[in-house]
């Protein structure tokens, strides 16, 4: 096997969001808010916590890998065929927050998953921004 056959790719979405990290963090870590922008879930922001995300197309099995409040959140994202890691990074800026999401772990033979994630995360980000705008 060559190294190119074993390399994985990542989907990265970055946005400048006009809200402080604390407000975005709530939308990333509170189950009822996650349901509004992503999927139904039983998430808890505790390292090692196993949770599921569910939609009409199926379920994603996840486990929290890292939690640094208002800064970093990372969790596994496993479907039947895709094993990946999603990492959120929040960096304060003068106008709000630089929000970065990286989903790493797409194998070269998973082009359909990779393209689906590229489109899906754009939609999820738009939904997330709407939820954050509504939070008091």
UniProtKB/TrEMBL annotation:
<dbReference type="Pfam" id="PF08327">
    <property type="entry name" value="AHSA1"/>
</dbReference>
<comment type="similarity">
    <text>Belongs to the AHA1 family.</text>
</comment>
<dbReference type="InterPro" id="IPR013538">
    <property type="entry name" value="ASHA1/2-like_C"/>
</dbReference>
<protein>
    <submittedName>
        <fullName>Activator of Hsp90 ATPase-like</fullName>
    </submittedName>
</protein>
<feature type="domain" description="Activator of Hsp90 ATPase homologue 1/2-like C-terminal">
    <location>
        <begin position="19"/>
        <end position="132"/>
    </location>
</feature>
<dbReference type="InterPro" id="IPR023393">
    <property type="entry name" value="START-like_dom_sf"/>
</dbReference>
